[in-house]
Amino acid sequence: APRARVVPFHEPGDGGPDGHRPPPLYCLHGETGELTWLTHHAPVLARGGAVLGVEAPGFGAQDGAAPPGTVGEIADADAEAILGHRPQGPYRVAGFGLAAPVAAEVSRRLLDAGHEVTELVLLGADEPDAAVEAARAARAAGGAPVADVAGLFAEVWGAARPPRPSGGERDLPAAEAAALLGAAAGCPLPADRLSSWLEDAAAWRGGYLEALEQYAPRPLAGTTLATAVRGSAGAGGDWSRWIVPPPHTIDLPCSAASPASADAARALARHGSEETGGAPGRLLVPVNLQGDKAPTFWGHHLYGEVSYGVYLSRHLGLDYPFVGVEQVDMASRVHEFDSIEEMATRYIEEIRRSHPDVPYPLGGCSFGGVLAFEMARQLLLAGCEVPHLVAIDPIMPTTGAWDSIDWGAMTPEEVESLSVVILGNAYCIRWGVEEKIRLADIGGLELGEQLDVIARHIVARSARRPRHDAIAGQIRLKHEVLLRNNQLLVDYRPQPLPKPVDTTVFHATRGFLSPDNDNDLPEVKRSDDDRSNGFAEFVRGEVTVHDVEADHFEIAYDHNLRRIAERLRPLFDTL
């Protein structure tokens, strides 16, 4: 089978604004099988890291350039080349134009192998259904293969667009197109090599359009941050129904017909600088940026991620913008803090930079609710407006609700293993493994052995066959974050809000761990009757409590988040 090839395109710089160098960005070939589209965009997309191109399988082959038979097979070859070049993640992936579906499928394969895809960039890309229709229309129209690809290259190299075939000619001769393009200052190839290059690009494009016409798109979930870059008219459609969390959309003030041009690259560079000061969304997760309602801002749970927010946002609907904060950035680097106060300060800086001078409705589940409370306190002290606080069964430290958690039914060893079991089963759900980890499976083992048992359990049972080392590394990272954040929670000493904030609490009625919990752990009761979970004495505003028949962990299950969203929607309509 034809192989894809990774080629260096842009050397790594000195890193981002804080000196940290992100993982390399793997930029996949365009619909022509090669990387001309990257000419002007490489330094813009790098952000201090290396940019690597992935040349298409079959491009430039001696027996004629032609892609494999399907989009999936092209993605298989591209993913194999990336993994051969860099066996361990995290990964950043970029796709262009009509070949953007290949980038989505490559990301899916990396995720299915147990790796993290921290960034997916789709540049000048139609959403999948529109791309399939565009391929169908292009094939039906016939066209002039060499003249078509020569026109694409002319936009990048600053050449006059080659003429269309005249008279009875079906296409423009490759030598004639090469002579016209070769006169441009930006052309990287001499005319004799350019002629065969054009023929290869035209052949590969024809084969790819045929493959794309047969492509059946599927939604993609699991990338940390996705960005769809479109022309000013919004050409390209809406990717929000294809990628979860929905991508951040950038509409450039340039023609959507020339997304690979120097003008488009300059517009993208200006947009990134103006919007984020050179650090695009480092700790913010734009779960949903659609809709005309007021955006709400959500704290992460103990693991440092806001994954519950993906499901909650989906149940709220696209009309309700939803922004989360996460402790693990796009490069899978954990940002450590010495206190919840320090953590809240950092997240507030990110939120106010991205969303200046707006009200800040806040929310969070479990640890995230306490974090949201501290963020509210600091925002109020800074003179900002916090119209509402949503708390999904967080338990405020130092209160009777906190002290009422009864650990008596568990041994100290079982208490230490509890977080490992719950984290392991969260990964079982993520990887489609129905058989759960039980306390007995890891009892008496050292932490490293426990994590290894969980990784082997998932690898052996997941239909997606993730890599053992990738799963083990992800679980270890999240467990370390959990332990650090739990200590921050224990050390936190809340102070009353400086101004009253109306608060909605969703209270889990079945305790910390219910007697029939699906993690098969011993029951852990909560004996305090304060249904506000200790929040009422600190928020000073009106507190509305909704009981949810679940324990502290079950309340974040999808069916419960659907019920919570139904309660929140009317509230958010008033903000």
Automatic annotation (TrEMBL):
Compositional bias of kind Basic and acidic residues: 11-21
Name of the protein this chain belongs to: Thioesterase domain-containing protein
InterPro entries in alphabetical order: AB_hydrolase_fold, Thioesterase
SUPFAM superfamilies listed in its UniProt record: alpha/beta-Hydrolases (SSF53474)
Chain intervals for the UniProt region annotation (Disordered): 1-22
Pfam family, one: Thioesterase
Domain of life: Bacteria
UniProt domain Thioesterase: residue ranges: 24-136, 297-399
